[in-house]
Amino acid sequence: MLRNARQSGGEKSKCYTACAICACPEIYEQVNLARTWFMYLLWPFTAGSHQPSDLISDQAMPTIDNTYGSLISVSPERRSGFRSDLNWQDGYRCVVTGMWDGEHRPASSDQAWVTLTGAHILKWAVGVFTLEQAHTAAATWNIIRHYSGISEETIQDMERLVDDPSNSMMLEPYAHTVFDKLKVYLEQMEREDEYVVKEVSSGRWIHRNILDRTITFRNHTAPTRDIPLPNPHFIALHAAISRILHMSGAAEVFAQILDRYDGAAGGNAIILKSNGNPVHQLSSMMSALYISTLPESTA
After folding, report:
1. Greatest alpha-carbon span in the chain
2. I need a labelling partner for 143 at 20 to 30 A (CA). Which of 129, 259, 294, 299 fits?
3. CA distances (Å), 270 to each of 47, 70, 289, in order?
């Protein structure tokens, strides 16, 4: 968390993270702090990426409570024109690979036919506070507010901004999947709106043709239409979470939890019902995972 704080939210983020750590001199306090970040920051992003690939862009980023309650349904009031606005903004091309959206592909292009999709940087339920999820959503956003450079005004307006072009980009299906699963992220360059595609680890399964590409966001409809470009604070937060998950080893723990409990949930660990405290349920799942890996003599 501390190592990635500056890139996420600058000096204020680094100061917040360092102060939080220094305020926990005892081991048990440090464990509780790590547990809080683990449960209320890292888990929601991970669970949000564990959706079926064809639903990813339309799903919420679930908090602990609604993760085990039910799969978040798509809001019936999604902003109309979301995909068309993004296509206009990005010139009907994937911002990473440059592939054309199939129906807008020039006749002179020899690329394979592909349908681009709108990829959300932050998921739908991040900005939607319902009665059922208010407590954990507030806890998640309280951490995000201190850890990122996102302003209080922007956070208050997230319900509107989730489906805004400032929180989205057009991607071809493969790039969309690895971005949603936090396997790749965008690292900001010195120039405004310019980024390089990076991976969290040297995963051989990631196509080499999308890595280390320099991309520049620009409004292809200017000056006719004023469409906002992706918010750099949203991109920086996505990048920080991606790095933290894999640098800390939390990604592997979450993957084992989801894989182990997929069987118990009929292939959907994220929709396990919980009659008790879902935070304690996740803790129990982690404990069971740890115990099952101990040597027989130790266990």
Report:
1. 71
2. 259
3. 7, 8, 16
**Is residue 104 within 8 Å of 92, Cβ to Cβ?**
yes
Whether a cis peptide bond, with omega within 30° of 0, leads into 106 is: no
C-alpha closest to that of 206 among 238, 248, 174 = 174
Q: What pLDDT digit, counting tens, does each position of 265-286 carry? A: 444 444 443 333 445 555 655 6
Helix (H, G, I), strand (E, B) or coil at 279: helix
Residues contacting 248, CB < 8 A, separation 6+:
1, 42
Q: Residues 142, 78: contact at Cβ < 8 Å?
A: no
Across 156-184, b (16+ Cβ under 10 Å) vs e yields: eebeebbbbbbbbbbbbebbbbbbbbbbb
- Write the burial class of residue 6 (CB in 10 Å: 0-12 exposed, 13-18 middle, 19+ buried): middle
Separation of alpha carbons 245 and 254, rounded Å: 9
Q: What Rg value do the Cα atoms of the chain yield, rounded?
A: 20
Indicate the pLDDT class of residue 208, thresholds 50, 70 and 90. Answer: confident
User: How far, in Å, are 68, 118, 201, 270, 287 from residue 274 at the CA level?
Assistant: 6, 32, 34, 11, 17
Residues 2-21: tens digit of each pLDDT: 999 999 999 999 999 999 99
Distance CA 239, CA 165 (A): 18
Please tell me the predicted confidence (pLDDT) of residue 209.
78
Q: Is 234 helix (H, G, I), strand (E, B) or coil?
A: helix
Q: How many residues does the chain have?
A: 299
165 has pLDDT over 70: yes
pLDDT tens digits, 100-147: 998 888 888 888 778 999 999 987 645 454 444 556 777 888 899 999
